[in-house]
Amino acid sequence: MTEHVRVAVIGSGFGGLGAAVRLRREGITDFVVLERADSVGGTWRDNSYPGCACDVPSHLYSFSFAPNPDWPRTFSGQEHIRAYLEHVTDTFGLRPHLRFGCEVRRMTWDAQELRWDIETSGGRYAADVVVSATGPLSDPKVPDVPGLDTFPGTVFHSARWDHGHDLTGKRVAMIGTGASAIQIVPALQPGVSRLTLFQRTPPWVMPRVDRAVSGAERALHRALPVTTRMRRGLLWGIRELQVQAFTKHPNELGFVERLAKLNLALSIKDPALRARLTPDYRIGCKRILLSNSYYPALAQPNVDVVASGLSEIRGSTLVAADGTEAEADVIVFGTGFHVTDMPIAERVVGAGGQTLAESWKDGMAALRGASAAGFPNWMSIIGPNTGLGNSSMILMIESQLNYMADYLRQLRVLGGRAALDARPGAVDAWNACVQERMKRTVWNTGGCTSWYLDANGRNTTVWPGTTSEFRRATRRVDLAEYELLRAPAPVAQAPDGAGKSEVTA
Q1: pTM above 0.90, yes or no
Q2: Closest CA to 383 of 136, 140, 46, 137
Q3: Neighbouring residues of 45: CB distance < 8 A, sequence distance ≥ 6
Q4: Could you read off the pLDDT of 321-380 as tens digits, one per residue?
Q5: What CA–CA distance (Å, rounded) separates 480 from 504?
Q6: What angle do CA 210, 169, 328 make, to 5 degrees?
Q7: Which family does it belong to (predicted)?
Q8: Rounded CA separation 438/444 (Å)
Q9: What pLDDT is attached to residue 492?
Q10: Alpha carbon separation from 261 to 12, 178, 200, 207, 278 (Å, rounded)
């Protein structure tokens, strides 16, 4: 049996829950949130590794419509963020709309009915509009390392942490040096017998100015909500002022780079180790990481830093590209996610019978980060070129929710069975403008290879401007950028059955 709804939201992380709240605020209650897991939280449910925390201040990494005066720290941990999302779910009455255990296997556009037919692991759905909020950090990427199947020990990705396996006293190999790895390494180092870090590229690391939020501060925020908004506004404003250094004048980041080098010099006294940990690209080209404990952990006697990527595994021996060998009982992959090749794209079949992955074979592109040509009434939250390098993704999500809300209002005004399909020319024009602006950003000129770039070397991930600019660009839907589709009228059958006539409304 197929359940028909006005809107189907895919995913229950920040994007999906935000979409659900906005739908209710728009008076739309005929919707479901399809979630493959058994609880809400998205990446903050899946990433429960030791030391997991956010690198954006808590009061900025939360919805503007759901401020939390009780954040325990300025940079809160995974358990607090997940609890916040559960709180949002309950506060806004989203439980009746949630459908757990419903992983999308395929969604196909029905041009006759102007709807999406959705097959999930928990049943079938039909939706007039789909809001895809699966997020870019949802499907872990594990490299295809030769010999991995010969490894006799335990292997897992940081986003699929094996909490049933005790690592105390074990020889652990950490693969990768991204945002997860710099939190995992200090958390594991004191308890393992040996920790070997395979580092393909060293990150730039700045101190993390984290502290407990005092009881007096929390009491003030509860008593005077305006103080919470002021705190959030200040955090936002500081980051808006920083944007031009990333997007227009990368050389202005030289001062920040000197501070990062000073942080490294103060933390690592061994010249040889310090040399291995010194990046050779402009700071900001990869995401700047925040930690007070990463460098001190690497300086401990039970830690080895291999300044080369993992290239082969021979039983329990791990071999780096430079020939360095290390023995391990456990391998932890902190190797990121399928960001520019999201698996969900292979499961979305558009109006022409082409999958979204096929449409994006030369690179992801969506009008205002939301609509892809050939995929009517389908919208993405955190779509192409909506990522940020220095601020909170919640700001971008809320801008996309504004766009989603106006999209649905436009459909309501148009009336009847209608759909909007982004015009290829509009998508191309938007993407050309984004890519032109991207040319002078630090992400494209900084001399690094990052997960911001796709297989063709194009930056299809990050937004090359301020969050204010993006909010203005997504405030309203411009119908000139879309083709209006109407459902075909019923076929009239001739009395003798010899002929047919079809009228399109």
Answers
A1: yes
A2: 136
A3: 13, 37, 39, 82
A4: 999 999 999 999 999 999 999 999 999 999 999 999 999 999 999 999 999 999 999 999
A5: 21
A6: 95
A7: Belongs to the FAD-binding monooxygenase family.
A8: 7
A9: 56
A10: 39, 18, 19, 11, 8
